[in-house]
Amino acid sequence: MAVIVDVFPARQDNFGYLIHDEATGRTAALDAPEAAAIRTALQMRGWTLSDIFITHHHLDHVEGIGELKAAFGSRVVGPRAEADKIEGLDELVGDGDRVTLGETAFDIIATPGHTLGHIVYHDAENKHLFSADALFSLGVGRMFEGTPGPMWAGLERLRALPDETLVYCGHEYTESNARFALSVDPDNLALQARAAEVKALRLAGRATIPFELGEDKRANPFLRADAPELARYYGLTGKHPSEVFAAIRKGKDNF
Fold first, then answer.
1. Is 58 a catalytic residue?
2. Is 56 annotated for ligand binding?
3. By three-state DSSP, how is residue 232 classified?
């Protein structure tokens, strides 16, 4: 059975998401960046918030939990590894678990790095990936808590998902990500095409998500840390891709 994904802005540059299971009418917020924005989106759709799916503990992803749970009595699902950092969780999940929203199932994939317990939600049937801050269009989240090896391994798992997967990430960072990506991978034709598309979308005031995972596999330097040209750029030919990934992440941090 199909789902509807409603996308709306929250805070300064967060994306808010409502996921609506058409068969049962259950509706989940993917993270809770801002209660007011989520409540407005619910009102516009005429939906009731039955669930909240949390990806990680950062304030701009959890701040609305208390207000929304009090207003709707929603079930709150979140990462077991960060349960001590997130108030209001009802159900704890980790890598390999499955969460249901009515008739829609989401597989939990661990993506440590941005935070140690970061998880993503993958709806394989409808080909949706809710990646929060683990994977952005043309980028990834800052490595605040993790180390390069596990973070790269988590990205490899996401990269293995089908090309036609639509990715819904946590922030509108694509334009700045494109500028950095072109600085380290300037001859990448797929990246050049995506950067031009992104520029046009932003000039038109439109969001750059969702994006197709297959397109990002070809254009996102963080998903291409095992590409020889990127290893050469950083003088790391023959090194493990996690070392190249670390160099790309450091380069973006200082860009």
1. yes
2. yes
3. helix
3-state secondary structure 151-206: HHHHHHHHHCCCCCCEEEECECCHHHHHHHHHHHCCCCHHHHHHHHHHHHHHHCCC
Q: What is the mean pLDDT of residues 15-31?
A: 97
- The predicted structure's pLDDT at residue 1: 60
User: What pLDDT, in 10s, does the model give residues 177-222?
Assistant: 999 999 999 999 999 999 999 999 999 999 999 999 999 999 999 9
Report the alpha-carbon angle 167-171-175, nearest 5.
90
253: exposed, middle or buried (Cβ count in 10 Å: 0-12, 13-18, 19+): exposed
How many CA atoms are closer than 13 Å to the CA of 218, on its beta-carbon side?
A: 15
**How far is Cα 50 from Cα 37, in angstroms, rounded to an integer?**
16
Which residue in 31, 60, 123, 216 is the catalytic one? Answer: 60
Determine whether 20 is an active site residue: no
- Both tokens assigned to 154: 């988590």
Which residue is catalytic, options 61, 118, 122, 128? 61
Q: Quick check: 80 pLDDT over 90? A: yes
pLDDT at 212: 98
Strands 14-21 and 3-10: antiparallel
Residue 122 labelled as part of a binding site: no
In 3-state terms, what secondary structure has residue 100? Answer: strand
Full set of structural domains in the chain with CATH: 3-253 (3.60.15.10)
Both tokens of residue 28?
């989940």
- Looking at residue 134, its pLDDT comes to 98
Rounded to whole angstroms, the Cα distance separating 137 from 160 reads 16
Q: What residues pair up with 53 in beta bridges, in sequence order?
A: 30, 77
Question: Average pLDDT, stretch 6-26?
Answer: 96
Q: For residues 169 and 55, give the distance between their C-alpha atoms in angstroms, rounded to a whole number.
A: 11
